[in-house]
Design brief:
heterodimer; A: alpha+beta; four-stranded antiparallel sheet; 2 helices; elongated; B: alpha+beta; 7 helices; 4 strands; 53% helix; 16% strand; extended
Chain lengths: 96, 161
């Protein structure tokens, strides 16, 4: 599996006066997210178990890993917005 | 024009472009010799220079995808008549993962989603999404190009590169 986004950068420029730049290392959130992820996996496994008992096709755990895969694939997303009518405001967002 | 044709054939012989790309370039050459010459140069140098710079404009699908013909990103570029710009670059792998995710939605949840969507007037069955169709869909997206020129000067360009 691909690793999830490890950094996020954001840049907001409002004409020539205001400027905001942020580079956030998302990887420091990974250890914080791990316990939550483990709990969710356990809950999904239980849901699958109950699905099996009730003769339904289990798929919650697979879906959960699919969501994780989708989140990982967000790396490389870039958004750039330039609003010339408001002091040429620029908002740029990147996920790495 | 004869030189251009030979260069396309040389690129094909060297394996830098596929037969399909060569056919397109030759077709374009017949339709518009000047434009095709530019596209051919781009296709030939694609393998050396890597992917085109973010949000380069005015390029055709064949020249953007380069020698390998494998697009990695989908670009949405909006330019309004007032000069406002919106550029979005989305990895095609994200689209693939997102579409695959729909096929991983548990059956009970899918039925509920289908029912709700039908109530809202969208007869869209998620059960129809098959993994083999997804690959075909992604391949089709690589070739997709949408150009919208509104009367008020707004322009929307969606393409994969």
């Amino acid at each position: 599996m691909k690793c999830p986004p490890y950094a996020m950068s954001m840049r907001i420029v409002d004409g020539k006066c205001a400027k905001f730049q942020l580079w956030f290392p998302l990887f420091i959130l990974w250890p914080l997210a791990l316990p939550f992820l483990l709990l969710t996996v356990i809950a999904a496994l239980f849901a699958d178990l109950f699905s099996l008992i009730s003769l339904h096709k289990p798929g919650y755990t697979r879906f959960l890993f699919g969501v994780l895969g989708t989140v990982s694939e967000t790396r490389g997303t870039e958004v750039f917005i330039q609003d010339k009518s408001h002091h040429s405001r620029i908002v740029a967002f990147t996920l790495r | 024009m004869g030189d251009d044709r030979n260069r396309i054939l040389d690129l094909l012989a060297a394996g830098k472009i596929t037969a399909e790309e060569a056919a397109r370039l030759l077709d374009a050459l017949e339709a518009n010799p000047a434009q095709a010459a530019g596209a051919e140069t781009s296709a030939g140098t694609g393998a050396k220079t890597g992917w085109p710079k973010f949000f380069s404009s005015g390029a055709k699908a064949t020249e953007r995808t380069g020698a390998t013909g494998t697009a990695k990103f989908m670009y949405v570029k909006v330019v309004s008549g007032q000069g406002d710009n919106v550029n979005v670059k989305i990895p095609l792998a994200l689209l693939r993962a997102g579409l695959k995710l729909t096929s991983l939605i548990p059956a009970q949840a899918q039925d509920q989603i289908n029912k709700t969507m039908a109530e809202k007037g969208m007869a869209f069955d998620l059960n129809n999404f098959k993994p083999e169709d997804l690959e075909e869909l992604i391949d089709a997206l690589r070739e997709m190009e949408v150009d919208v020129d509104a009367a008020n000067g707004d322009k929307v360009h969606v393409y994969a590169a």
